[in-house]
Amino acid sequence: MPTPNTPIWEVFIRSRNGLAHKHVGSLHAADATLALQAARDLYTRRGEGLSIWVVPTASITASDPQDREMLFEPTASKPYRHPTFYEIPDEVGHM
Amino acid sequence: MYTQALNQQPESAPREADNAEAAARFQARIDAEERIEANDWMPEAYRRTLTRQISQHAHSEIVGMLPEGNWITRAPSLRRKAALLAKVQDECGHGLYLYAAAETLGTSREELVDQLLSGRAKYSSIFNYPTLTWADMGAIGWLVDGAAIMNQIPLCRCSYGPYARAMIRVCKEESFHQRQGYEIMLTLCRGNAEQKAMAQDALNRFWWPCLMMFGPPDTQSQHSDMSMRWKIKRFSNDELRQKFINATVPQAEILGLTLPDPELKQIDGVWHHGPIDWDEFHRVIAGGGPCNRERLAARRRAHDEGAWVREAAAAFAAKRAPKNQTEKQAA
Ligand SMILES: [Fe+2]
Ligand SMILES: [Fe+2]
Questions:
Q1: Of A2, A53, B76, B204, which is least surrounded by CB within 10 A?
Q2: Across residues A81-86, what is the average pLDDT?
Q3: ipTM score here?
Q4: CATH number at residue A43
Q5: d(CA B88, CA B70)
Q6: Do B2 and A36 make contact, defined as CB atoms within 8 angstroms?
Q7: Quick check: pTM over 0.80?
């Protein structure tokens, strides 16, 4: 009989000093401690990480990819949020 | 315990951890350019210093929306209005990144905001000056954001990871702020005599307060030594001020404007400025600037008028919480 309902965890790894943790994948584990150990075994076999975060997948609220247009299209019509929109004479140089 | 929530102080922050050995190990990590992260051991003074600095930085971004917000409805064109609105929106975003970074050190957002509203926390002196004309939008973008960039670029390498990463995000967004300001100045300076005079007047009023943004001279700076040792700060106040002046003088020349400092002169490639009125700086920081009362009153009003929104959101979340629970159990 399969073991029911072992929670899923999302795994985040800080690959280098100073960088943010980045999502690398997920795994099954009964609790946080086991999840951390499993993440170490599964995702850091080649020295990929300095530290690991595990987060219960059920705690993550995600946007629906179907809503992409509604959520993000409005930024496409706002070129004035980008530095290149403004005309600065070449002689001023980098600003 | 590595699975603790980031916003909690380690339960067993024992006094013995506060010992010389831990402090030495901490300093060695700093010296090796390692970033300190929220769960790492740190001296209490480091935590306090950073909480103060990051939250005051956050307050500055938030209060900094007010002087520019003053002109959004009166921008001279739709183009300018959209740009100014987007800039002010960015500043709000900067405040939010920074509050979140400060919270990783263990003080809640509510407490930090309360420190601002009760007048216990400080924010940048520059935002206590009024914005009298449209040209002030140009001067602020060009000079105030220019000075902020000088300050913030070295903070991208600050020893505290969450602050450094927030600064990288902020710095990416600042370039547009400065360029839109400079474009406003350039347009006014290429306009008629009255418009150019308006740009010159804005520069005259904002120049000295901008130089004060870098803080007191190195000879009087209270917090600098430890901040340098901890690599929270990488350059002294005077060094950053000097970099700013060197960058700004040629930009003013291109505009055809005169910096309001008759003593400003270049010696061996370095610009030397006349005396800064530090009495004014201390007066403004202590609450006696032209707009201190107005700024705090505006923040308090916004906070009070937003209370019902926070209450309604909390009530709604509470109402939904038990329902979510049963849904999950049913699933
Ligand atoms: Fe900002
Ligand atoms: Fe800005």
A1: A2
A2: 94
A3: 0.87
A4: 3.10.20.520
A5: 10
A6: yes
A7: yes
